[in-house]
């Protein structure tokens, strides 16, 4: 089956075969292996936050933002877990990445992890839909190759979580060996787990991983690296997005009605050639357009 045929099936929320997943993941690893820890991405680009397996809401996102490759997309991780369709969501994004590698950019989130996905749904979903764990294994091998961040026009730093006390410069991000399971501490962990907060300096994160970081930390990081602003995801925002620290740190959240019960709207962030930011609101897909999931995943963890 051709890649385009697989994309069309996945767009209909139909799973592809285990053999097709294996081959797709192999091709994806080859492409991702050549990307830097700090991908260079050029405007205009549309930045998307957490998706969390909410496939029908991802389709709504494409309705609002445009289809790839017409729109240049960056997804800031947490493609899987909690939603009912993590398999179809991740495989569609991966197939689009392989088909249009210069128009679809993937960044790793804290849920792109073997340990996390065994707790919050993706592992169980793979087992349920394929009858074995091979597809989970193929996908988690790809996770290790996904880039840690991106730099848009050399001026906008895009990452899933946030900053790290171990990192002062983007060159330090570039030297990280990312081809591994997400560590429990250190620079790579912090990039995927940290959050901005209204504090001075660094603080202890309630998540148990990463750090809280304040306006002063962002100011120094942006000045040292000649960055205008940081775009990140990782935190549920009821309004879909949040701008902090005089617009130098913005959060993009792209899973509407998170876990099918939070009542939030979502957003995507368009960055134009002048680095101007425009947030577009994405509402949850209407109930009548959704399929019926086979089983409810675990929903108890919300951070």
Number of strands: 14
Whole-number mean pLDDT: 96
Q: What is the N-to-C order of secondary-structure elements (H for helix, E for strand)?
A: HHEEHEHEHHHEEHHEEEHEEEEE
Distance between the termini: 39 Å
Helix content: 25-40%
The strand order across the widest sheet is: 1-5-6-10-12-11
- Poorly predicted segments: 295-302
Q: What gross morphology would you assign?
A: globular
Q: Rg to the nearest angstrom?
A: 18 Å
Largest sheet properties: 6 strands, mixed
- Given the helix and strand composition, which structural class is it? alpha/beta
3D architecture notes:
With 303 residues, the protein is of the alpha/beta class. 32% of the residues lie in helices and 18% in strands. It has 10 helices and 14 strands. The chain has helices at 3-11, 18-33, 55-65, 86-99, 114-120, 122-130, 134-143, 170-174, 187-193, 215-224; strands at 38-41, 45-48, 73-75, 104-106, 149-152, 156-159, 195-196, 202-204, 211-213, 229-232, 241-244, 249-252, 266-271, 277-282. It has a 6-stranded mixed beta sheet with strand order 1-5-6-10-12-11. Strands 4-3-2-13-14 form a 5-stranded mixed beta sheet. A hairpin with a 3-residue loop joins strand 5 (149-152) and strand 6 (156-159). Helix 1 (3-11) packs antiparallel against helix 4 (86-99), helix 2 crosses helix 4 and helix 2 (18-33) runs parallel beside helix 7. The longest helix has 16 residues, at 18-33. It is globular.
């Amino acid at each position: 089956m051709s890649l385009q045929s697989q994309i069309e099936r996945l767009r209909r929320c139909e799973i592809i075969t285990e053999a097709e997943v294996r081959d797709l993941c192999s091709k994806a690893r080859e492409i991702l292996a050549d990307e830097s820890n700090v991908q260079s991405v050029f405007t205009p680009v549309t930045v998307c936050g957490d998706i969390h397996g909410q496939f029908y809401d991802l389709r709504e996102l494409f309705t609002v933002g445009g289809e790839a490759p017409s729109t240049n997309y960056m997804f800031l991780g947490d493609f899987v877990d909690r939603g009912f369709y993590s398999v179809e969501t991740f495989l569609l994004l991966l197939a689009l990445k392989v088909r249009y590698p210069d128009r679809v950019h993937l960044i790793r989130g804290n849920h792109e992890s073997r340990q996390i996905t065994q707790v919050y749904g993706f592992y169980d979903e793979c087992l349920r839909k394929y009858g074995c764990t091979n597809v989970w294994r193929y996908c988690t091998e790809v996770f290790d190759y996904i880039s840690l961040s991106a730099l848009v026009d050399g001026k906008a730093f895009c990452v899933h979580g946030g900053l790290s006390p171990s990192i002062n410069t983007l060159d330090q991000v570039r030297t990280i060996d990312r081809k591994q399971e997400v560590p429990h501490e250190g620079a790579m962990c912090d990039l995927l787990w940290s959050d901005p907060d209204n504090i001075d300096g660094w603080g202890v994160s309630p998540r148990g991983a990463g750090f809280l970081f304040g306006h002063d930390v962002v100011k120094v990081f942006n000045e040292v690296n000649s960055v205008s602003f940081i775009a990140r995801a990782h935190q549920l925002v009821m309004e879909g997005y949040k701008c902090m620290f005089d617009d130098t740190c913005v959060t993009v959240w792209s899973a509407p009605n998170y876990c099918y019960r939070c009542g939030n709207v979502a957003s995507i962030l368009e960055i134009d050639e002048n680095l101007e930011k425009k947030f577009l609101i994405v509402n949850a897909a209407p109930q009548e357009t959704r399929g019926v999931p086979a089983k409810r995943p675990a929903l108890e963890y919300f951070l």
